[in-house]
């Protein structure tokens, strides 16, 4: 079977020394010593997991589009492939882009249908108006840090069996950070709000924003369940608690930032 490694230059497979159990089976989440065996210079054979007896990582023979579709469908195996078996070089770039996207939507009052917070200045001075965008960026950076921090805190309190080191040898806080960023990819669905904002009603925009946020919460619950190795119900409780506490503290932060508008 000929294989072409997916996500070349973006999510390359991790490189480990032979015998190191730093890959993860995408089906059961248990460490495996490798994902494939080299039969010849052009032929590879996927290794089966010793525990579940299934192919350790079927996605090494899939095209990028198939992996992305499974990510959109909130597939746990797809999440494990990206988080544990791939070198996620560009996730931090994606996180920065998403924060800037949300900040721009907030600054242009695209979110005014679900919140009364605004950083847009009523003055015509372009420099003062631009200041609102930077305040919006600070708002969402603070929101991301608070969300990640409270998810980590509540996980430690409610799910004490979280390992310090995950199946692929990386620390749990590091993998959780990557998971929160990966779950945020659904926020790219905010782009239609920017494009069609002038032709949409306040109600329609509010519904769109709520649906995107619901998708984000569901994907975050799914990824937290993968990274923390706990049930979806417990992950749901942890994520929802983190969102509630984050919203409380972010409201206080927003009040301070609005003083600079």
From TrEMBL:
<keyword id="KW-0812">Transmembrane</keyword>
<dbReference type="GO" id="GO:0005789">
    <property type="term" value="C:endoplasmic reticulum membrane"/>
</dbReference>
<dbReference type="GO" id="GO:0032541">
    <property type="term" value="C:cortical endoplasmic reticulum"/>
</dbReference>
<dbReference type="GO" id="GO:0097036">
    <property type="term" value="P:regulation of plasma membrane sterol distribution"/>
</dbReference>
<comment type="function">
    <text>Mediator of sterol homeostasis involved in sterol uptake, trafficking and distribution into membranes.</text>
</comment>
<feature type="transmembrane region" description="Helical">
    <location>
        <begin position="207"/>
        <end position="227"/>
    </location>
</feature>
<feature type="transmembrane region" description="Helical">
    <location>
        <begin position="132"/>
        <end position="154"/>
    </location>
</feature>
<feature type="transmembrane region" description="Helical">
    <location>
        <begin position="174"/>
        <end position="195"/>
    </location>
</feature>
<dbReference type="GO" id="GO:0006665">
    <property type="term" value="P:sphingolipid metabolic process"/>
</dbReference>
<dbReference type="GO" id="GO:0016125">
    <property type="term" value="P:sterol metabolic process"/>
</dbReference>
<dbReference type="GO" id="GO:0005794">
    <property type="term" value="C:Golgi apparatus"/>
</dbReference>
<dbReference type="InterPro" id="IPR007290">
    <property type="entry name" value="Arv1"/>
</dbReference>
<keyword id="KW-0813">Transport</keyword>
<keyword id="KW-0445">Lipid transport</keyword>
<keyword id="KW-0443">Lipid metabolism</keyword>
<comment type="similarity">
    <text>Belongs to the ARV1 family.</text>
</comment>
<keyword id="KW-0256">Endoplasmic reticulum</keyword>
<dbReference type="Pfam" id="PF04161">
    <property type="entry name" value="Arv1"/>
</dbReference>
<protein>
    <recommendedName>
        <fullName>Protein ARV</fullName>
    </recommendedName>
</protein>
<keyword id="KW-0472">Membrane</keyword>
<keyword id="KW-1133">Transmembrane helix</keyword>
<feature type="transmembrane region" description="Helical">
    <location>
        <begin position="233"/>
        <end position="251"/>
    </location>
</feature>
<dbReference type="GO" id="GO:0032366">
    <property type="term" value="P:intracellular sterol transport"/>
</dbReference>
């Amino acid at each position: 079977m000929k294989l072409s490694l997916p996500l070349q230059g973006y999510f390359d497979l991790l490189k480990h020394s032979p015998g190191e159990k730093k890959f993860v089976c995408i089906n059961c989440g248990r460490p495996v010593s490798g994902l494939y065996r080299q039969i010849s210079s052009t032929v590879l054979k996927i290794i089966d997991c010793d525990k579940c007896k299934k192919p350790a990582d079927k996605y090494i023979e899939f095209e990028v589009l198939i992996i992305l579709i499974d990510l959109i469908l909130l597939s746990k195996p797809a999440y494990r492939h990206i988080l544990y078996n791939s070198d996620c070089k560009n996730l931090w770039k994606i996180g920065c882009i998403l924060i800037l996207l949300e900040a721009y939507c907030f600054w242009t009052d695209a979110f005014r249908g679900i919140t009364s917070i605004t950083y847009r200045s009523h003055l015509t001075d372009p420099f003062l108006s631009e200041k609102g965008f930077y305040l919006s960026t600070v708002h969402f950076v603070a929101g991301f840090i608070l969300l990640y921090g409270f998810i980590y805190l509540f996980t430690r309190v409610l799910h004490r069996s979280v390992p310090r080191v995950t199946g692929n040898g990386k620390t749990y806080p590091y993998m959780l950070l990557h998971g929160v960023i990966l779950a945020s990819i659904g926020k790219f669905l905010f782009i239609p709000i920017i494009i069609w904002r002038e032709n949409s009603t306040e109600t329609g925009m509010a519904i769109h924003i709520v649906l995107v946020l619901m998708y984000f919460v569901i994907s975050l619950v799914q990824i937290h369940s993968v990274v923390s190795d706990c049930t979806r119900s417990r992950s749901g409780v942890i994520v929802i608690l983190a969102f509630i506490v984050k919203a409380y503290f972010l409201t206080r932060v927003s009040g301070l930032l609005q003083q600079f508008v």
